[in-house]
Amino acid sequence: MINFNYETDFNLDNEEAIAFWLSNVITSENKKEGEINYIFCDDEYLHKINLEYLNHDTLTDIISFDYTMGNELSGDVFVSVERVKDNAVDFNVPFEDELKRVLVHGVLHYCGYKDKGEDDELLMRSKEDEKLALFHVER
């Protein structure tokens, strides 16, 4: 089950379509969907988590806590809406596209993809692009 929680005034317009897409991403990686919680917040909220749990004194767009057991993906994904908005401007892409990239990034981490080294980062970007192409909003 994919859940969306809000610690800021932001709200997803299309929760159902996003959840459906993320479920398809999980299936496409031959994984099972456990409980994945997305928590949308601001920079300050995520910075505190980054300091407290990871000992990093930096701003970031996403922090994911992985509770995956075997093939069943579960975890908490914290997303700074402020960072995503800034990154969308920096990368010259629509906010909605950058947000989807961040959302799928968390799931891909749970699938075992990393992004610390150059090769891992290239593979992660490729997987993000592949999974973004799966997104279709049902009308």
UniProtKB/TrEMBL annotation:
It is found in: Cytoplasm. It comes from the Bacteria. Keywords: Cytoplasm, Endonuclease, Hydrolase, Metal-binding, Nuclease, Ribosome biogenesis, rRNA processing, Zinc. Gene3D superfamilies: Metalloproteases ('zincins'), catalytic domain. Zn(2+) binds at H105, H109, D115. Binds 1 zinc ion. SUPFAM superfamilies: Metalloproteases ('zincins'), catalytic domain. Its EC number is 3.1.-.-. Its cofactor is Zn(2+). It holds the Pfam family YbeY. It is an enzyme of class 3 (hydrolase). Single strand-specific metallo-endoribonuclease involved in late-stage 70S ribosome quality control and in maturation of the 3' terminus of the 16S rRNA. Belongs to the endoribonuclease YbeY family. This is Endoribonuclease YbeY. It comes from Flavobacterium gawalongense.
